[in-house]
Amino acid sequence: GPDERAEMLDRLGIKRLAYDYRAEHVPTFDAEVEAMKRRGIEMTAWWFPSALNAEARTILGTIERHQIHPQLWVVGGGETPKNEAEQNAQVEREAARIKPIAEAAAKLGCKVALYNHGGWFGEPENQVAIIERLKRDGVRNVGIVYNFHHGHDHIPRFSALWRTMQPYLYAVNINGMELGGDKRGRKILNLGTGDKELGMLRVIRDSGWRGPVGIIDHRAELDSEVALRDKLRGLEGLRRELATPGSGGPRPGPAPAPQ
Description:
The chain is an alpha/beta fold and 259 residues long. The chain has helices spanning 2-12, 29-38, 54-66, 84-107, 124-136, 158-165, 197-207, 224-243; strands at residues 16-19, 42-47, 71-74, 112-115, 142-147, 169-174, 213-215.
């Protein structure tokens, strides 16, 4: 339940949460926010529906009641357009879809972050086009949350892509990365066990960007606390390696069994 989740994050020393939920959690939204507040955990982001529907309004009501200001993380889809006219039409459609969400968020002091989840919408250049289109309508609270685990195809051009995204970035979620890992059952890897994430993190560090960096608990075979401890250990190794090359130590293996 909410209290157990908050206690677990507190034990791990995690003080910021991006809240993902399922339908059964909707009735406990208030309890979730209250539990996090009691433990001093900021709800930095909240997964959000793709349209301003009843569930979206329930989330907005919860945010307003509790005077919190999470980023709203929104996904999208879309087929690849065949020509420039179709591309422009798709940007218009997606901007029109995001606009009411962004306007509702702005009233509560919240930002909206476009979440790359594959497909046309998952290409950062398309997200930038949507954001720039919204700016023409005076909507200025929309940016990007970039997810390593949905960006395997971006690895070869990550440095250039990062420069494109950087002015728009609200948050980044990191993952162990291998070229093509998503196509051979190695999409979600512990930090430090891939061979590409360190280079990607160097690009981010050297760019001067300083925003929220998330770790993800996407390993169904592991208890969440074990999976997150794994990620934190891997992250610490990467931090050491970023600070002093050669100091990161052995790559983290599986977590030891909880005592």
